[in-house]
Amino acid sequence: MVGLYRSAPFLTLVASLLSVFASFVIPYSRYLFSASFSWASFFLATFLPIDRFLLTNESFQKYRRIDVAICSTCIVLSTVCASLLGERGNGLGSVLIPLLVHILRFQYMTHPVAGDIDGNLHEHEKNITYGTTNVDMSTLVFITITSFLALAPNYPGASQLVFGMCSSIFAATYLSISDISIPLTRSVLREISAYTCLGLLLMSLLLDGWAGWSALGTSDGLATMIFVWSLFSAIKNIIIMVLIQQLSPINASFVDLIGILSTTLYSHTAWKVSSMCISYMAIASALLPTHIGDRRIRYLSVRLSKLITLVIALFLLSFGAYMAAKPRIGGSSQRVMVSNIGGRDSWNATIHPISYLIELHSTKFEDLISRQTTTYPEAVKEYRRRYNLNPPPNFDKWYAIATEKKAAVLDDYDTIYHNLHPFWGLSPATIRKRVSDALANPDSFLLGVYIRNGAIANVTGAKGQWFDNTLTEVISGFAQFLPDMDLAFNLLDSPRVVMPHADLAALLDKPQKSGTKNEFTKLPLEEFDIPLVRDAGSLDTVFDSFSQQSSWGHAKLSCSPDSPVKTTHIDSVNQYALSIGFIKNSTAALDICLSPSYQHQHGVFVRPEFFSIVAESVPIFSQSKLSSFGDILYPSPSYFAERAPYDLASDKLWAEKSASMFWRGAASGVHSQAGSWRQGHRQRTVSYFSSFEENCTMLMDLSELEKLNQGLENGDLLGWQGKLAELARESQSNALHENIIHKRNVDEKNKGMADEKQKAKDVDKTPEDKKAGDDKDTEQADHEFYSELSKQQEANEQNSESQFAEQSVPKGTFENYIDLKFSKYQQCDDADCQAQTQALGAVAASSNFQDTWQYKYLLDMDGNGHSARYYAFLKSRSLVVKQTLFKEWHDERLLPWVHYVPLSVGLKEGFEILRFLIENDISAKHIADSSRRWSAKALRKEDMEVYFFRLLLEYGRLVDDKRDIIGCI
Q1: Name one GO molecular function term (predicted).
Q2: CB-hemisphere CA count at 13 Å for 207?
Q3: Helix 270-287 vs helix 97-109: angle between axes, to the nearest 10 degrees?
Q4: How confident is the model at residue 373, as a pLDDT?
């Protein structure tokens, strides 16, 4: 055992080196490389003072400066690694640096027991060591502050920077407290000091837990809450150190251990925070024997503290390796409870998750419709409530046009607000300068539209193409109400603007103001002329091209240092998914900062065909963007121009469509080179749904499985049970399949009688009526559907036998219900094109786009950017299964499970979605009908014009030199 104690520092270094090695061997564990130096410095600081504790005063003085040098080197190395690898560490700012300050101070400022075998203190020895530490203390303070400042750019904005500096100040405050409290020998004074610290500790624990919980549940004020949270954490850590020094090691450790664990578990980094606090107590316990007179007890206390700290070190390093080795996932097997959302409090396993999600989001959609204002004063009041600003000038003109065009959505335009919010952190002149530089850059791939005196004065870029013709036609419809402005439109499919998180946070911290002057300001005279194209080298705004190479490192630039993409490297699926991956929060599902696995699941991150970005806040208008980008979204010209047209006459009634999931498209979305196509989203999806020899995960009702095993009611179960799948495979015939098809067709024809009657009525309808596709009494139909759905769910909940659980089922069960094929292999080297053909099959025969309407379930996927087919699919009588990572202007008004069925890029839930849609034909048809009716009301050209008009009004105020005093009331 003595050998183990003496080798503790060596074992700690070995464990740290093993973690470095693991970072290169274990997938997705690069953060261990950075963390290893932090842990090494942490535990070296722990063991060195304990080892030196039993030395003589002469030996202590000999090793003192060596210890300072070793620990200071570890601080610098951990800081450098964290800066290079982007790992903030969570300990350097609030835990590690104050800890090392204290430990090193103990080493060279005093050695109370040196030179006395009985442990009695020699006052002259204390005075000697105190008098020789000024230089070392100054050196350590310099190293600590320098290291922190080197790491500071990785902190999220000014709030965290202030917090880090506060931690250093608190550490210095602790030194003063320690100087006063340690020499106390009177028991009364010591108890008063201890109880005072205990009271402050309890208060800080409560505040720490409250602030941490608030930070996790707050989005807009997150930076502020993190600062408050960190502030109380720093105070708490200092008080813990003082308290443990005042009390005995046993009771202090247990009391503080319970308090710390009960509060730090609120944190999303609980294992880091709590483990560091435990280490705090172990170290302080090692220091406490300085006041013990009995040499034997003091010796045992030191050894025990050393053993405890060694166990903690090995545990933390092992746990870190486990967290690093934990595989990335695209879906979750956990059943997440969602509280107080919609009409039902939470999902439970007695009802199918999709049924729950349909009801949940249907309630949200009803709320969206009901909360729209009906008068202009109400609209202005609602605007002020949402944004704490007056509307921009000419808002009254916008409202008049919106109501004239019968816009279904008048208030929900939060996308515009969030897109423009960062630019409030820049002066109007700076914004205009950056736009001017961007448009003057010949390599910018931007279309410039210049509005002067209420009309489009000039267009630069791809002039004469369908894109700018469509764009200028739309803007001309309301240009008379716009101020003079220069607009930069992105000509690439990929987004363009992404900036570091610290820069973005700084912009978002700037206040927004408005006034009551309902008039825009004229452009300065020197900016009125149209700027000329200039040499890129003379411009401040620079575009960097990373086409056909990995873009992941750039795409995650704006993610918070505390986000999963920069810390755990494990998807935070519980924030957006249920069960095996059913998306419940489409906004969070698009957030790449929550899902590190997207790096290898979507072509835009793997090897995009075109990728040109600017790393500063430049107002570039894009048709779609990734969640981490700062582009301004506007309705795509491809939707205006109907590049993917929908022909009502070619569409079929629901009952006449094939119950299959259909997709045709080119192998775009990724440039395939050296096998990179295997991580392209289109290739992954086609491969996943076509590998019929494999198994898939489905949700099985255990009560129905029992009935199936008894041979009861198996005629209406479409092979989603494992037993039925075996029967279908073993029969070597299509008899069972034909029986299922026959039963389903009979049901569909019975359900489709109303559609048959409606089709006869369609003959007499006007083209506008046909396009709208609004069936008579749709509100009554919706009411009946939701009523029936609720009854079914309540019946399932009351049925204690009904319980959904995961089951592995052969994909081959669904071979006849999937038709996904590539129409062309492109964006690939010759070898990769050939490899895709061999792996994914030959291209499908050419077909007419209008043939798409033969199928009930239409899969829509991203290409190099958003899909231009989306609106045509929504207008049809088919159901849209939507897989995307791109945000678009319409995201606020299209709800998952109401207007489309979301499919994650992880794909785990894909086959269960298909099974549910086939088995629950009424629900599937209702979603298809809802999307058709709503798109005819909210996705018309008129609706896109209304959105575009409001967007440019808001942008016009943003670039106005007097934006703080203008506004419309």
Answers
A1: transferase activity
A2: 18
A3: 10
A4: 94
Sheet with 620-622, strands from edge to edge, namely: 455-460, 446-452, 485-490, 620-622, 632-633
Phi, psi of 60 (to 5 degrees): -60, -45
**Cβ proximity of 489 and 446 under 8 Å:** yes
- Residue type for position 314: L
Kindly tell me the sign of the dihedral angle through the C-alpha atoms of 183, 188, 191, 197: negative
How many Å apart are CA 170 and CA 242, to the nearest integer? 12
Whether the per-residue pLDDT at 941 is higher than 70: the answer is yes
Average pLDDT, integer, range 868-886: 97
Q: In this structure, which amino acid lies at residue 417?
A: Y
Q: Over the stretch 74-125, which tens digit does the pLDDT of each residue have?
A: 555 554 554 444 433 333 333 343 344 444 444 433 333 333 323 333 333 3
Token pair of 493, please? Answer: 């499919």
User: If phi over 0 gives left and psi between -120 and 50 gives alpha, with beta otherwise, what is residue 53?
Assistant: alpha
pLDDT at 667: 94
Render pLDDT for 135-172 as a digit per residue (tens, 0 to 9): 444 444 454 444 444 433 333 333 333 443 444 344 44
Q: How far is the C-alpha of 629 from the C-alpha of 551, rounded, in Å?
A: 12
Residue 426 to residue 432: CA distance in whole angstroms: 10
How many angstroms separate the Cα of 963 from the Cα of each of 398, 416, 457?
A: 18, 17, 23
**800: three-class secondary structure by DSSP:** coil
Locate 905 and state its tokens: 């890029």
Q: How far is CA 188 from CA 182, 184, 194, 262, in A?
A: 14, 9, 10, 30
- In what helix (H) or strand (E) does residue 451 lie, and over which residues does it extend? strand 446-452
> Is it the case that residue 825 has pLDDT exceeding 90?
yes
- Beta partners for 881? 859, 901
Dist CA 878 CA 657 (whole Å): 8
Task: Determine how many CB atoms are found less than 10 A away from the CB of residue 774.
Answer: 14
pLDDT surpassing 90 at residue 701: no
Q: What are the sequence ranges of the domains in the chain? A: 28-325, 353-641+947-958
Q: Are 284 and 244 in contact (CB under 8 A)?
A: yes
Using CB atoms within 10 Å of the CB of residue 88, give its burial: 0 to 12 exposed, 13 to 18 middle, 19+ buried: buried
On the 0-12 / 13-18 / 19+ scale of CB atoms within 10 A, 814 is buried
List, for residues 467-486, the tens digit of each pLDDT value: 989 999 999 999 999 999 99
Q: Mean pLDDT score of the chain, rounded to an integer?
A: 69
Burial class (CB in 10 A: 0-12, 13-18, 19+), 296: exposed
Q: List all residues 6 or more positions away from 269 whose beta carbon is below 8 Å from its beta carbon.
A: 90, 562, 567
